[in-house]
Structure formats: C-alpha cells, structure tokens
Amino acid sequence: MRSELFSAENLEKESAQPGLRLQNSKLLKAELNGDFMARQGSMVAYQGNVQFEALGSGGIGKFIKQKLTGEGVPLMRVRGHGDVFLADRAADVHLIDLEQGDTLSINGSNVLAFDSTLQYDIKMVGGAGMMSNAGLFNCVFSGYGRIAVTTKGTPVVLSVDQPTYVDPQAAICWSANLQTGYHRAEQMGLGTLLGRTTGERYTMSFAGQGFVVVQPSEEPPGGLIAGTGSGQQSGQGGGLLGNLLGN
C-alpha cells in the first residue's frame, strides 16, 4: 500500500525518555511511565496499559474557585505505561519548561496537559477590578516540570520592556511577576455617544520585566461574569471568594 499519508513525518515519533513531547504542531504525545495531568476529553488515542481518572478542577478548593470564577482546568489524571496522544480541536500545541522559581499565569482554556510535579492555583489578575469579564482570573503554575499550552494560530511572544497592551481575549499566558491592569483603549466622543464602537474598549496592560504570549485569535470572554452567568452569584460568594483567593 502506498500513500503520502505514510510518509516519515506522519509516523509515530519514538523516544527513549518518558514525558510530554510534540508528535507534530497540533498533537501532543506523552510517553507514559508514571502519571501526568491533562484536560478532560483531550485524549485522541493511546497504546499500552493506561488509566484515566477524573479530578474535576484538581481538588475541592480549586473546584469551588472554578465555580465562583468560571476559570480553571477540568482535569484528569493519566497513569500507567504506554503512549498517549492529546489534542484540542486541532489547535497548535506548544511546550513550556518551568524551572524552580518560575511562575507562569495561563488562561485556563489554553492548558492541555502538564507534569504532575507542577502546582497550580486560580488567582485574580491584579488591577483588573470589575471592568471586564475577560481574563479576570487565571491559572498560575509554579514548580519544576513541563506544561503544554494551545493557541489558535501561530502566536507572538512580546518582551515587556515598555508599556504593553493586549486584548484580554487574545492573551494566552505571561510572566506571573508582571504588573497587570486594565486600560481603556477606546476614546470617548460623539461616535461613542451615538452607539458606535471600535470593538477595542478595554485592553490588558503589562509592566515590568517579562513576556506575554498573544495568539492571533480572540477567545470568547471568560472570567467571573461569563463563567457563572450571574452577577448575583458573584456577590453572594464575594467573602468566600476573597478568602479562597488569598490562600
């Protein structure tokens, strides 16, 4: 049987070392000898003796935060021995290696998988206030290990060495040490009063030293309001939410 389908670039890539690696730009391969964490429903194929365990958001504290904030990662633990392939609607997959002392703030919807040695929590984006319901909360990862994130299209990595502004729906991840806020990009004027809009009302602002990864696509708004669908719920959970986010 002959076909370009069976060319070398499409054959399974083998490695002697276990862990997360790219099979291709849209497919993650985990050579499994132990366990790792992955987004629920992201498995597209596997070989060997592999078990999948649903974990919700990764613990009762994170589960409550996810319900209150609309942010987080619906997780499953993958354990055993074999090869596991993961993807998310043909999005591009990128690998990031965190070393001890590194912290990375990531949009939860862009997390595909990560080593179980990493820790993550749901944190409020500093300076966001209640201006926007996009990107108000993010997942902050720390520790030592590898994480796979997805983007819609080829991203750009911006070095934050001057005031930087990004559409909150296009921001994938950024250095957690950066100072963040929200900036009104659209100028008030007669057109605004007449109901005209540029579609660029608010942007996220970044300051300090670090980087921001931006994808060439805008995700639907997330965060507190869109995640819960009820401003009333956010008000009722305000005290509990503050306590949780402080932990």
Provide keyphrases for this structure.
six-stranded antiparallel β-sheet, globular, mainly beta, 247 residues, 45% strand, seven-stranded antiparallel β-sheet, single chain
Detailed description of the structure:
This protein has 247 residues and is mainly β. It has five helices and 16 strands. The strands form three sheets. Strands 1, 2, 3, 4, 5, 7 and 10 form a seven-stranded antiparallel beta sheet that branches. It has a six-stranded antiparallel beta sheet with strand order 8-9-6-13-16-11. A hairpin with a 2-residue loop joins strand 1 (19-24) and strand 2 (27-39). The N and C termini lie far apart (59 Å).
Please specify the SSE layout and strand pairing.
Blueprint (H helix, E strand, L loop, with lengths): L18 E6 L2 E13 L3 E14 L3 H10 L5 E12 L5 E7 L4 E4 L4 E5 L2 E7 L12 E7 L1 E7 L4 E5 L3 E3 L4 E5 L3 E6 L5 H4 L8 E6 L2 E5 L8 H6 L2 H6 L1 H8 L2
Antiparallel strand pairs: 1-2, 2-4, 2-7, 3-4, 5-10, 6-9, 6-13, 7-10, 8-9, 11-16, 12-15, 13-16, 14-15
